[in-house]
Please model this.
Amino acid sequence: MSVPRIVVVGSVNTDMVVKGERLPGPGETVTGGQFVLVAGGKGANQAVAAARLGGDVTLVAKVGRDVFGDQAIENFGREGIRTDCILRDEKNATGVALILVDAKGENLISVASGANHAFTPADVDRAAERIRTASALMLQLEIPMDAVCRAAEIAAAAGVPVILDPAPAAPLPDGLLKNVAYLTPNESEAERLTGIPVADEGSARRAAERLLAAGARHVLVTLGSKGALLAGKEGMVLIPTVPVNAVDTTAAGDAFNGGLAWALGSGMALEAAVRQACLVGALSATRLGAQPSLPTKKELDDFVALHRN
Model:
């Protein structure tokens, strides 16, 4: 396999995670949880996911000039991620996410965007040459939409495939999807984008048809334990995953997207790449925390071997 050159344009957060027996309702306090402070942010998570699998990864992002920003950049260096395209914001703090996780692995997340919200199209332009020479560009929606659109435009014009994870779910501007090679919504995001409630394979197919008609070349609706529905002009197929005991699903989508970029950039055929991405996501869901849950290539190989027998 060749080493894929992956560029991620996206967010960097510090995640403050409390894992308890159940999630609180409005106005309710639930005590007795376990607290963990971990690196997060969808852009950062996807960069780490792809790097741990063996990708040559550049992260294009913005962090505050504070201790969380310092820690983030140091952590990326340890992961082997190129950090020369990470900007320091003098006015805004590094993003922070507050995450509650229950005993079943379900979660609630609240984010203070900080420097992520100050990311601009001009910041993207500073990394344009790195984007143009990438094997794949990964995008999410935790930075301003105009920056997302600019990055997709640069990549598409250079023939670089764009993987867009539309999370957190938000309306997509006209013209964005024509630059997207792979759109990867989960069930709730697919519903938000199409208005079609997605609860099973049939409804996922209807949502995927609408997103293909809107301009995306391929749509991958992730369906949790059911795997992922792959849709394109060639047709649709459900790619299964393996059953696991979920501990924390916070970064499962990021793991899936990082695995997809790595697999496609390594030269895998599309269905095989989606199958690998499903396995990366499943493995990550068995661990607590966002970036701590993301597997290395050896861990993925061991996981695949275990479930092959």
User: Anything to note?
Assistant: The two ends are 24 Å apart (CA to CA). The domain at 5-10+41-91+119-308 is CATH 3.40.1190.20 (UDP-N-acetylmuramoyl-L-alanine:D-glutamate ligase). Residues 138 and 235 are 24 Å apart (CA to CA). The mean pLDDT is 94.
